[in-house]
Description:
The complex is a heterodimer. By secondary structure, chain A is α+β, with helices and mostly antiparallel strands. Chain A has nine helices and 15 strands.
Amino acid sequence: MDIDTTKCVGCGNCHIICTMGAISLDADGRSVVNQDECVECSTCYRVLKNEGYWVWFIRAIRKALSFFHLGHLADTDLCPTGALTPPELAWPRVLRAQFSNPTVVHPGTGVPGRGTDEIKSNDVTGRLRGGEAGLVVEIGRPGIGACFRDVEKVAMALAPLEPVFEPENPVTDLIADLETGRMKAEILNEKVLSAIIELKIGLEKVPAFLSVLEKIQHEIDTVISVGIASRCLPDGTIPHEEWVEKAGYALSPNGKTNLGMGRPLFREDKA
Amino acid sequence: MTNTLHRQGTIESLRHDYVIFAHTAKGINREGAASKIREFMKICLKYHPVNMGDVKQGGMHRDGIAIEQLIANLEDGTVGAAAFTDLDTLHKVVEELIKVDLGICINISGLLDEVRECCRKAGITRHSAEHSLGIWGAKDRLPEREVMEFNTMCGHGMISFNLVRKMIEEVRLRRKTPKQAARMMAKCCECGAFNPARAEALLERMRERGFLYSER
């Protein structure tokens, strides 16, 4: 995001809304964006309503109030002068928007948000079948963000266990070598709100994968949200529960359920 | 989009937090699905969700968004979502969806045992399920537990830690009511998965029992 300093009146609302805390005031009292930290999520631009005031008018009021040591408590969702300016993004910086701005549809998968399907369409795709588990490793979430350098570290730690990297996943698209997990060199310094490595593995391999994640989590300076999924048994039992418990990890009480209402329903016996 | 998977909070609080959403798969049931997603959203709307939306247009709490217009503008590849606060209502929505049999993929995020029971009552068996294994890595960089409860209701990460803190402070100073503060947070959520009713309840609870850093 860019901020037009000829328009900015330094109200600070965008500092609060910024998902990465990447905006601050410069010495002249104008807001500036730390472009290394900005993930181009555009939340500030979408949420802060442009009030369209004259810049000189707002500056004069602010100056007069500050003379009397007074301030004005403006609503948080306003930009008085419309100073926020979304830039044209070129490769590889455009990846920041693709992975951080949920309104942008991932070009590879056609899915908005973080661009992944996981179990959400498993009833019609049959991506996860009996005996398989899906691991969803979201690096940077919640709220800290991650560089693709961090994503690469995790991908390279997991790759030797020979998972199937989900082909319909935007991170998989950026992995240059699926055998090693090495990513395209030119993207490594790009920062995003989060990126999801999506893998398919045999259920019996769940403990080994969690053990690798256990080690690699200490080698990156961001957070990882981990999820696990599987196709339920005919009575509704969740097969991965047993393997996660065997590995010594706790499962959340809440989660996601695919109700199986998609059509045509995928039939494993006919695949 | 694992955006509804990692919601944090006590079991009691999560009992008031269910997100139902419609998804489609490329090359299978996505093409031509817009009218079905619209139908899904209309059914949800009938049962008064506390939030709804789709990622391409935003949530219903955004300024200048009329819900009927939002539904009319839904496109094939989008993900329509609606948030509810109780299982009984969710059950009614599921029953109606079974009746109309739209053929798009329907998912629910919430307490897994309760959702399973809801499916059982509606006469279906869940197809697939996903658990969160929690947050790993540099957890020392995360804020207070209370801030996380709000932030994780928008899994796309649109509600910044700073905004949550600011809203808690505004409620503490009585510059905003819990309802106003919750609505401000909901404005940032693009997909309609944020639950402003639960956020309001969390803020009310804080006002009664103590804000951040308070003894409980």
